[in-house]
Amino acid sequence: MKKLFIFFAILLCSSFGKALAYDFSAENEDGVTIYYYFFNDSTEVSVTYNKYHQQNYSGNVVIPATVTHNGKTCPVTSIYREAFYGCSRLESVTFGSNIVRIYPSAFTKCTRLTSITIPANMKNIYNHCFEGCAGLTSITIPDNVESIGDSCFADCYNLSSITIPDNMMQLGNGAFDGTPWYDSQPEGIVYIGNIAYRYKGTLAPHSDIVIKEGTVGIASKAFSMLNYKSVTIPKSLRFVGADAFYWNQYGLDITVHVSDLAAWCNITFSNNSANPLAQSAHLIVNGTEIKDLVIPDNVTQIKQNAFYMCRDFTSVTIPSSVTRICENAFYYCDGIKSLTLSEGLEDIERNAFYSCRGLTSLTIPNTVTRLPWSVFGGCTGLESVKIGSGVASIEHYTFSGCTSLKSIDIPDGVRNILSRAFYGCASLSSVTIGKGLSNIAPDAFASCDKLTSIAVDPDNSVFDSRDDSNCLIRTATNTLVFGNSHTIIPNCVEIIGDSAFQYCTSLTSVIIPENVTKIGFAAFSGCFNLTSVIISEGVTEIGATAFSGCSSLTSITFPSSLTTFGAGAFFLANPKSVICKWTNPPVISKSLFSDSTYKNASLHIPAGCTDTYKATDYWYLFKNIKDDANGVDKVLDTELLVQSQGGKISVSGAAEGQKLSIYNTAGMELGRATIHNGTATIDTQLQHGDIAIIKMGERSVKCIVK
Fold first, then answer.
1. Which pLDDT score is estimated for 4?
2. Residue partners of 644: CB distance under 8 A and separation at least 6
3. What's the rounded Cα separation, in Å, for the pair 444 and 394?
């Protein structure tokens, strides 16, 4: 009964939320009640509806310029989504002078609406606004309107007269489909105002599309799914709607003809399929195919998608007049081998040169202040980069996937390096960090498996790379921020930071030193070649998913100091053995290990503690609990027998004549021996609880002395 009541309450609240879709109502001068919705911090209001899709409005409605509620007067600036939807008795609407936007489907299916007067300061009329208004016969769009959305006046079956301003550039797909006006247009390219609206009829295969001079805009999907071999673009063009040239059925080898390269750089392409060059086309300027692109000196910015997938370019030169290169401007121009960026360039937007795979070297001007998302990501041929002194931020994925990049110097001006900025730079071996860096994401250099040298300017007050440890350490807290398979964790480190070794696929074993107290979130997650982990005494906390996905892990050793586990810390790790030093184990969550670990792994515990473990959540799930009495906890992925007594470690089970060495966790060799008559013994002087590393050729056994 209680559950039923809760469900009913939720349903009632949901229905009530739909029923009252307004903040307040007020009568206009004609006594008509109009419903309003506050927005923009309650400084403006939008006309909306009372009950969802019910007949709120009829007859003639005059929307005022302002409305007063509780003593506060606000301008009425928009008609909200579906405000008059389906009001089949509505005959005319007069908009107040402050209305600048009509949102989607505001007047859809107002079938008796015969008259609308759009105010002079209107800016945007969105998708489907007047779709299905069968009573409309004519419409005049004021000069200030910037855009008309998809299907805005579609299926207005009596709309025969349409006037739009000559300077309007943005027109949605099918805005006037299903009207007498469109039906009366001849076959070929249909124009309305100075916009190319649609190709009407059937375009003959392998045709040439020629947009007439004076055209300022091309409507969305105007030439999509046609079969043409060339496109001629006029100098006057300024805007191309989404998917205007989507999927040319002719194929990918088309030509795009322009007469003015500077004008081309100034066209706004709504998305990549708005640009005919995205069909891997050839750019022809005044009859000459462009291979070496030189941007004219009078260009100040290169608009988004301007040269998207123009794969013919072998070199690009951008002059000092250009201050901005917009998003996707040279996306996937993989033929570019030489790129010249001049001083004066200030802003390069995301993905501007993504996957320019032929590029081998790059110099970023000193006037550039930030390197945004994936701006040079996927440039697989890029071997060297010089970052300008003005760059303060290297952002997400900036150089990700630059698999040929060998070294990088981070200049003193860089303050921030964000997530995965250099992710997957598989050849990167050396990183030098300047004195200005104060913030870096722990996964900034994730999957850089060949990184063997990390050096930090000694004047950097936030980070260091002490003791040639090949890792980055936050100085104040002794936190290891990120490392790699060549890192030697210094004994002074107290925290292994979040994601510090994430996706370090070359890492095969790790020993956590004694001074470490915490292993952070996802610190070693995705290290799928990691085979063994020994966590020294002193560690008290392991973060969530710290070792998740370490699918090759054969052994884990837990110290008695460990008290806190994050959820899924070893999920999908599937170790063969789990070695514990607690005599009274802490309670763990079931998600700490995968089901397969509980089923298949051996749990090695101190002698006499079996009943305690079987009574503690969720250790009792282990099917194979071993009450080991040996003097050493050992990694069981070998057939060796390792025993200790009074600091002496004996090894048996190896081949006769096999040489072995024993080291402590600081890497100091404690002794050498050779297997003779099946056994070798070394006096290490190690104490109870110390960690020993036994190395034989390429194999190693890590153990804790009891």
1. 37
2. 631, 632, 650, 686, 692, 703, 705, 706
3. 10
Sheet holding 699-705, edge to edge: 632-633, 699-705, 691-696, 659-663, 669-674
Beta bridge partners of 94: 62, 117
Minimum mean pLDDT range among 47-56, 568-577, 589-598: 47-56
Give the 3-state secondary structure of residue 15: helix
Asked whether 409 and 387 are in contact (CB, 8 A), the reply is yes
Q: How far apart are CA 643 and CA 398, in angstroms?
A: 52
Q: How confident is the model at residue 17 (pLDDT cuts 50, 70, 90)?
A: very low
When pLDDT is averaged across residues 484-500 and rounded to a whole number, the result is 90
Q: Mean pLDDT across the stretch 429-454? A: 92
DSSP-based three-state secondary structure for 16: helix
Neighbours of 678 (CB within 10 A): 12
State the DSSP code for 186.
P
- State the Cα–Cα distance between residues 336 and 330, nearest whole angstrom: 9
What's the CA gap between 27 and 30, in Å, rounded? Answer: 8
Q: Distance (Å, rounded) from C-alpha 596 to C-alpha 570?
A: 11
| Helical (H) or strand (E) element with 439 | strand 439-440
- Long-range residue pairs from 472-481, CB within 8 A, at least 24 positions apart, any chain: 472/433, 472/440, 478/515, 481/440, 481/442
Tokens of 373: 């998302």
- For the stretch 522-569, pLDDT in tens is 999 999 999 888 888 899 999 999 999 999 988 888 888 999 999 999
- Inter-residue contact 352 to 331 (CB < 8 Å): yes
Three-state DSSP class for residue 596: helix
- Residue 90 pairs in a beta bridge with 59
Q: Are 102 and 126 in contact (CB under 8 A)?
A: yes
Closest CA to 533 of 279, 284, 321, 704: 704
Least trusted range by pLDDT, from 93-107, 415-429, 662-676: 662-676
Residues 6+ apart with CB under 8 A from 226: 199, 203, 207, 209, 248, 249
Helix (H, G, I), strand (E, B) or coil at 304: coil
- Concatenated DSSP letters of 348-371: E-TTTTTT-TT--EEE--TT--EE
Does the global pTM surpass 0.90?
Answer: no
Backbone dihedral region of 678: left (phi > 0), alpha (psi from -120 to 50 degrees) or beta?
left
Q: How far is it, in rounded angstroms, from Cα 282 to Cα 304?
A: 18
Tell me how crowded residue 95 is: count the other CB atoms within 10 A of its CB: 22
CA distances from 379 to 80, 107, 336, 532, 590 (A): 45, 49, 10, 35, 44
Q: What is the pLDDT of residues 156-192, one digit of tens each?
A: 999 999 999 999 999 999 999 999 999 999 999 999 9
CA dihedral 416, 422, 428, 434 (to 10 degrees): -10
